[in-house]
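Reopening closed ticket. The problem is back. First fold of the pair:
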Amino acid sequence: MRMKVLYEDSNILAIDKPSGILVHPDDRSKEKTVFDLFLKKYPKLEIVHRLDKETSGVLLLAKNKKTHEFLKKQFQDRTIKKTYVAIVSGNVKNDRGVINKPIGRSPKDFRRYLAGRGARGEMRDAITQYRVLKRFEADHFRFSYLEIHPKTGRTHQIRVHMKYLNHPVVCDSLYNPDNPTPKGITRMALHAQSIEFKNLKGDIIKVESPIPKEFEKVIRKN
C-alpha cells in the first residue's frame, strides 16, 4: 500500500493515513501497519501519536528519538492543534460546544472507553470542542457534519465524547453499531483534517489532508 507524504523535513514525516490500516503493530494482529511500511526507509522511525485503525488523515512520524521527544512534549503541553471532521448520528442541537468529561474504561467491554457515569479504573481528563458545519437528512435519517478540536489526546476520545452526547460517529462499529448510515459511507466517518506543530527549527507547520471524497459526496448531495 502506498501512502501520500504530506510534509517531510530531515526529522519529521507527515503522511496521509488511509482508513483501515493500523498505525502500530499490536499483539492481536499480524497485518501490515504504517510503522512497517516506513521502517525500511527510516530505520530510526518512531510513532509520535496514533489514529485509530478506521480513522483517516494526517499522521505525524519522527525520524529519530530526539524528534520523537521534541514532538511528544508538544502533545503533552497541548500546544499542537488538531482538527478533525466527522459525520455523526442525529441533529446536534448546539452550533458549538465543549465536552469536558473524563474518560475511563467500560465495565462491560474491554475494547471500549466511557465518559461520565459508569466508567471504571483511572479517569483521565478529556476536553473536546466541536462546531456544526451542516445538519442534513439522508434516507429519512438525520445526521450532522462536525469540525472537531480535541484538546487532549485520550484513546478513542472523539468517538467516546460523541457517544456521550448521544451523537456517535457514523459507521463506528464499536460505539455506534446499530444506527443508520448515509448511503455511500462504508467506513468510520472520522478524519484527521489538519495538524499544526513546531518543527525543530522553530517554524510553525500546518499540514492538511483532503476531506475524503465519500464525505464530500454525502455532504454535497444532502
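Second fold of the pair, where the issue appears:
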Amino acid sequence: MKPEILALVPIYAPTLAELERRYTVHKLWTAKDPDALMRQVAGSITVVVTTGLAAYRRRHIEALPGLKLIACFGNPHGMPAEDRAAAAGRGIAVTNSPDEIRATVADLAMGLVLATMRRITEGDRFVRSGKWLNGPATPGRDLGGKTLGVIGLGGIGREIARRAEVFGMKVCYHGPRAKPDVAYSYHANLEEMARVSDCLLAMCPLTPQTRGIVDARVLAAVGPEGFFINMARGPVVDQQALIAALREKTIAGAGLDVYWDEPRVPTELLELENVALTPHHGSNTREIREERGRKVLANLEAYFAGKPVLYPVE
C-alpha cells in the first residue's frame, strides 16, 4: 500500500504526477468540503505538500494529529509567526526546495520595464484589435538615459540594476539604509526618489514597514511621464491609489507581476490599457519548477526512508 499524503494546493503538474505515482495523494483544493476531507484522512496523514507561497496554516496542523512533515514546493517566505510556532511546537519538520532565482526574477523584472515603457503588451492588444488600421499606436519611451529607482536593493534588486545599466539606464535605490558596497545613488526618502525616477520598481520584501509604502503621494511623485513596476508583493502598493493613478493617467503606466488577492485581479486593472499584467511569473520557468520538484521528491523520499530530510527550513 502506498503512503498517503495531503496536497493543500496545486503544484507543478509533472511533480504532482510523480507524487501520485509514488504515493496516494489527497488533493485538498478539489474537495467540495476541505474540512471534511481533512477529518476523513486525519488518521493516515503524516505528510503535507504545499507551495512556498500558499505555505500552511495553524488550522491544518491542528486538524492533522499525526502530521510529521510539511514539504514546500518553493520557500515559505513571510509565514505568520503563529503558524510557524504551531509547527515548531509540535516538532513538525518543514522543508523547502532552495533554488537560485535571482537572475530569473530579474529577467522578468527587466522584461516588464521594457514591456511597460515601450508599450509592448499595449501594442499587442492594439494590433489584435484591428486599431492599427485606424492610425498609429501611442509611442513608447526609450530606456537609455532614463533613471530606474529600485525599492529594495537586495540580491534580486542588484541583478535588476545590472540589467538596467546594460540598457543604458541610470540606477538609484531606496531601502532602510545605504549599501556601502554599491555606487548607485541612495535615497532615504522614497518620495524624493520617485520624483527623480523615470521608472519606479518595487523589489522589497513585504513587511509591516513596506506594506503600502507606494502610496498616493509616491505615485504622484512618479508623475504623468513616469512608470511603476511591482515585482515585490501586491500590498506594498496602495491598490486603489494605483488604479486611480492609472485611470487618471497621473502616471504613464505600470507593470505588475504581483497582486493584492492573487489570483483575483481587480476588474479595473483588467480594463486599463496602460498596464502590463503577468501572473506572479517571477520564478515561473520550467528549469526552476523542475529543480523545486526534484527537491520536494527528495525530501519525501528521505522522510519515508527514515532518513533526515535534505532541505529543512531552519
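Update: turned out to be a display glitch only; the data is intact. Residues 4-99+287-304 form a domain with the Rossmann fold fold (CATH 3.40.50.720). The two ends are 32 Å apart (CA to CA). Please close again.
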